[in-house]
Design a protein that fits this description.
Pfam families: Sulfotransfer_2. InterPro entries: Sulfotransferase. It comes from Prorocentrum cordatum. This is Sulfotransferase family protein. By secondary structure, the chain is mainly alpha-helical. Helix content is about 30%, strand content about 5%. Strands 1-2-3 form a 3-stranded parallel β-sheet, with helices on both faces. The longest helix is centred in the N-terminal third of the chain and has 13 residues. It is globular.
């Protein structure tokens, strides 16, 4: 949260969380040693434990957060959503395969992980937060589908640069958006944040960047429509969320039997809102607890992690 910029940002694991934490710290005026750790020759994962994020936590400002989420005047309330199957594959490729979870060993195959999650009764509010549905909050224990209506800027993972530019422009103007997004990032400190992929931005010293590839997981799904459908069913609640938000899922990941999945383009009524980031939405009856995230917090929601993070 940035009170100065009247910005409430819900950062979701596996939805470019690391990059957005950096952007928020830069927006707040912190130095590059905070928001661009690779430029200071530190690993990118350090951003999640950086003391610069302390001022953005919202747990001590619940009344203000509630007011903002209920349509506080002038507040920008932003969140990025990602296709559930692709987000799951990213978590598998960057977390499970790299041994970050004791309950899901690194030698676990993709079908084995899906089977274990099914045996555990599916995914929900108690699931490890990289694998947790975007629709859940960690302390609520159930889906908060209607929470998406609290946000007046909803972005897509495949359009991060346009989304980030829209958010920063809304709170600080277009010149500031260009200054924050177009340069100053990466090991060489001269790269854009989202206009290039992470592996391009950090190409000068890739060992300092977090893992981005999920190609092995993607390969495991090639020609396996049944496995893809099982993953999609695990995250059915998130496909409903995407439909409510007007965010189209990836074509290959759309489960044919999953209700509530939009079959075409962005839903009517939501696309017009994308261009009105300061528009207050009706919040009547909305549960004030937030949001879609670990720690039941919104911008700078994560405590210093015990595992590495990546897209």
């Amino acid at each position: 949260m940035s009170e100065a910029h009247r910005l409430l940002f819900c950062v979701i694991p596996k939805n470019a969380a690391s990059e957005f934490l950096g952007l928020l710290m830069r927006l707040e005026g912190l130095g590059p040693e905070h928001w661009n750790p690779t430029g200071s020759r530190h690993h990118q994962m350090n951003i999640h434990a950086d003391p610069g994020t302390l001022g953005m936590r919202v747990t001590s400002r619940r009344a203000l957060v509630e007011a903002a989420l209920r349509g506080g005047e002038g507040w920008v309330r932003a969140v990025v959503l990602r296709d559930p199957v692709q987000r799951f594959l990213s978590a598998y490729g960057s977390k499970v395969r790299h041994g970050h979870f004791k309950q899901y060993p690194s030698n676990m195959t993709l079908p084995q992980l899906v089977s274990q999650l099914e045996a555990e009764g599916g995914v929900g509010g108690a699931t490890e937060f990289h694998l947790r549905p975007q629709s859940y909050i960690s302390r609520g224990g159930h889906a908060r589908i209607n929470s998406i209506e609290r946000y007046n800027v909803v972005g897509r993972f495949d359009e991060l640069d346009a989304f980030a530019r829209r958010v920063v422009t809304a709170v600080a103007g277009p010149e500031r958006a260009s200054a924050l997004l177009d340069r100053g990032w990466g090991y060489t400190r001269d790269q854009p944040l989202f206009a290039e992929r992470r592996e391009v931005r950090e190409a000068a010293r890739p060992g300092l960047a977090m893992v981005t590839t999920n190609s092995r997981a993607e390969a495991a799904l090639q020609g396996n429509a049944s496995l893809r459908a099982r993953i999609a069913r695990l995250y059915e609640v998130d496909y409903t969320l995407l439909a409510r938000a007007g965010v189209p899922p990836a074509v290959a990941a759309t489960p044919a039997a999953t209700p509530g999945v939009p079959s075409g383009s962005v839903a009517e009524g939501r696309s017009s809102m994308q261009n009105e980031p300061r528009r207050a939405l009706p919040m009547a009856g909305a549960d004030p607890s937030i949001c879609l995230n670990e720690g039941d917090q919104a911008a700078r929601i994560h405590e210093p992690p015990t595992t590495n993070w990546s897209k």
